[in-house]
Protein: HTH araC/xylS-type domain-containing protein
Organism: Sphingobium quisquiliarum P25
Amino acid sequence: MDHLSKALADTHLRGSLLAMLDFAAPWSVDFETAHSGAPTHYIVSGEAWLDRMGEPPLRLVPGDLVMFPRWDRHILSCTPKTEGTLTIREVVARSKGVRWTPGEWLDHPLSISIPGDGPRTTLLSLVFELDENTPHPLLLALPRLIHLRAADTQIGPWLQQLMQFLIAEAESQRGGYAVVSSRIADLLFMQIVRSELLTRPEQVAGWLRALVDPAIGTALAAMHDRPGERWTLPGLARISGLSRSGFCARFRELMDVTPHQHLQRLRMEAAAARLSAGARVKSLADEFGYATPFSFNLAFKRHFGMTPSAYRNRHQLLEM
């Protein structure tokens, strides 16, 4: 398995929210900055204008998709001028029968509308969530805005097919919707990331760029395969084919963190996945090289903002 495939296989969405938006002109909606998640908008019909707070407005047509990996504030409107703007919370509050608060993940799609007699725009919007308290390195590695165009022959066909699947699921809400839509959202997210890296590699940074680096990518793959191993700088440098100083410098240049910092994060995420499956704290402390469960608890709480036991209990409650 190549490095990118392994990285994508190890990346799991913790949640995704799906909403069908049906807006009649005139309309303008402010998607305020949130603490986490990657809001994504797909134009189903009509057109929209994207205002990125100070950047020139961007026209979006049917089949276009935009994603904000770090949830920068943005406004979608029916014209380049953002007049009479409502926040997305206000729009939700005015939509009959819709109840939702930011950060809440639902097992059914939202249907949000702005009524009127003007030209209509229909969008399918999603929010991808990869981590709970800290920005995921995958999202940090992506550009602040990803724009996939329907006119791009390498992207348009697969994007349209995936989105049609999601639209059909959102409209029908048949039994099994939550599982099927979640799997399609997983695939959509991976395809967006893959397309951005393979078609515009100069736009990505950090972890993704390091994955395709001949030297650092090999060391990263080894770390991701065996996060619990007692890795040392000389050992990682040997795998990469670089000197110790050359490895550290190149790793920091690409990742913007030290090898130790990245390994620490990797271990915490691997431990969190095991905790969700019911693993015991003591066994994880041993597996990931901590001298005592207490030292593991401290490291885990620094990363996730809660103890391992609290994290496991929370996820067990969510799965009930």
